[in-house]
């Protein structure tokens, strides 16, 4: 089996099971001027590449959703992130 055939087989299996290909994203509320230093910092560090996010994985949102108790609404954050994470 060639690489292309194995990749097609994996995609077919994922589609049959209803899985979507996802990626890790970062939601932020920063202005563009404040985001630039944040994007530069990990590339200058000795973090493993797996933990370093590319600039196309950062998505601006107006505000983080909150609950009536003042806590972060993780369910809504997950929903928002899932709209950006589908490849």
* Total beta strand runs: 2
The number of distinct helices, counting runs of at least 4 residues, comes to 3
Uncertain runs are: none
What is the share of helical residues? 40-55%
Give the helices and strands as they follow along the chain: HEHEH
Largest sheet data:
2 strands, parallel
Give the neighbour order of strands across the main sheet: 1-2
- The number of distinct structural domains comes to 1
Write a concise keyword list for the protein shown above.
87 residues, 7% strand, mainly alpha, two-stranded parallel sheet
Overview of the structural elements:
This protein has three helices and two strands, in the order H-E-H-E-H. It is mostly helical and about 90 residues long. It has one domain (about 25-85). The chain has a two-stranded parallel ribbon with strand order 1-2. Helix 2 (about 30-45) links the parallel strand 1 (about 25-30) and strand 2. The longest helix is centred in the N-terminal third of the chain and has 15 residues, at about 5-15.
In a nutshell, what does this entry contain?
The protein is 46% helix and 7% strand. It is built from 3 helices and 2 strands, in the order H-E-H-E-H.
């Amino acid at each position: 089996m060639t690489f292309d055939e194995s990749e097609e087989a994996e995609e077919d299996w994922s589609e049959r099971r209803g899985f979507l290909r996802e990626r890790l994203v970062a939601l932020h509320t920063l202005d563009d001027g404040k985001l630039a230093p944040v994007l530069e910092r990990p590339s200058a560090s000795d973090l493993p590449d797996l933990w370093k996010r590319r600039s196309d994985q950062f998505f601006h949102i107006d505000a983080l959703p909150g609950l009536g108790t003042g806590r972060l609404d993780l369910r809504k954050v997950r929903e928002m992130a899932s709209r950006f994470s589908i490849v």
